[in-house]
């Protein structure tokens, strides 16, 4: 994976620290507006990271004053006939990549996170936010509908009526409200975001990779299915976990009053 550091990226920055990969949006002159080059580079890195068994956690962050101003409106359709074609071809693979990944994805959000960039951040498995950061849902104010899965995320976190209110009012959702509604896991001081993110990612990277990967699948399944179907799905995955040599070693360590290790 080290060769990735030598690649020249135009719209993102990349770092690898132990078992954690960091992908940073890096178009500061446009407030990290997501253009075609950025989408292509993100997807390329995600695919490379997915093939690397050493990496356990991926952090999605950003350089500059904020996470992202959303899609690059100056770019327009980027060669596609419709915005639908562009979203299906260049955004959907990113969302699918996060959802299907065996890795844990953490969104680390500072400043503004607007429009379709909100969908990208909310697609992560976990999220941490600086106290001055906010999500901005501007669509109704521009005669647009939510995109990038923002409808999906807001309805599940806020409920239908509150999600409709946020959409119709083209509101900003402050960090403290994001934590209250469960949109993000935690809010930290602005000057602590980077260190807190790195510490959290490093701790997760020391955890049980099979448990994390299949547990992610179980949580996703539970969002869309019944209790009984979820119990059955969990049971099937528990067989895979319980038969793993790593699990047996962890149980042995626990019985010996030792801390299990998974690295």
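Q: What amino acid sequence fits the structure above?
A:
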């Amino acid at each position: 994976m080290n060769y990735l550091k030598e690649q020249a990226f135009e719209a993102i920055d990349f770092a690898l620290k132990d078992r954690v990969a960091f992908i940073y949006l890096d178009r500061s002159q446009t407030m990290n507006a997501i253009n075609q080059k950025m989408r292509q580079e993100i997807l390329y890195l995600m695919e490379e990271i997915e093939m690397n068994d050493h990496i356990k956690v991926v952090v999605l962050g950003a350089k500059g004053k904020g996470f992202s101003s959303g899609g690059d409106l100056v770019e327009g359709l980027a060669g596609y006939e419709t915005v639908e074609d562009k979203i299906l071809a260049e955004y959907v693979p990113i969302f699918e990549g996060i959802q299907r990944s065996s890795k844990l994805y953490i969104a680390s959000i500072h400043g503004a996170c607007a429009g379709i960039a909100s969908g990208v951040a909310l697609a992560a498995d976990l999220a941490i936010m600086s106290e001055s950061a906010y999500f901005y849902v501007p669509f109704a104010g521009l005669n647009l509908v939510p995109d990038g899965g923002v409808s999906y995320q807001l309805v599940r976190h806020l409920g239908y009526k509150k999600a409709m209110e946020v959409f119709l009012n083209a509101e900003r959702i402050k960090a403290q409200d994001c934590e209250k509604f469960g949109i993000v896991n935690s809010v930290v001081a602005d000057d602590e975001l980077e260190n807190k993110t790195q510490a959290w990612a490093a701790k997760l990277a020391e955890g049980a990779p099979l448990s994390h990967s299949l547990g992610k699948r179980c949580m996703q399944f539970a969002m869309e299915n019944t209790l009984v179907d979820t119990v059955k799905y969990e049971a099937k995955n528990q067989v895979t976990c319980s038969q793993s040599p790593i699990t047996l070693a962890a149980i042995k360590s626990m019985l010996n009053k030792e801390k299990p290790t998974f690295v």
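Q: And what stands out in the fold?
A: Residues 209-255 form one domain.
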